[in-house]
Specification:
Length: about 100
């Protein structure tokens, strides 16, 4: 197997590990999922109590106060789906993922 092939497989495995990380949404809230980083964006769906979500990337948006503080960070949890980081336990008050492009 060529070195390039091994490196490509290794990179793919690392990306899968990163994508698999999930974060707990505060258990006492059913959080609104929006189409963009703010409450003026369309409501896409509502998360169930006790949900956990992947954070694919993060971007700045509307400032929201929630159980984990006040923040303007919004988490992309799926294509076209965002929730405020104020409802997600990440263990940090800052960015924990790459910024959305």
């Amino acid at each position: 197997m060529a070195t390039e092939e091994v490196e490509r497989q290794s990179a793919s495995a690392n990306e899968a590990t990163i994508a698999a990380t999930r974060y707990a949404v505060h258990p006492n809230y059913r959080v609104n999922v929006r189409s963009g980083p703010g409450t003026k964006y369309a409501l896409v769906r509502v998360l169930a109590y006790g949900a956990s979500v992947p954070i694919n990337c993060q971007r700045p948006g509307e400032s929201i106060a929630g159980p984990y503080g006040t923040t303007s960070i919004w988490d992309n949890i799926a294509n076209g789906e965002y929730i405020s980081d104020a409802y997600v336990y990440t263990g940090s008050s800052g960015y924990v993922a790459v910024r959305c492009g």
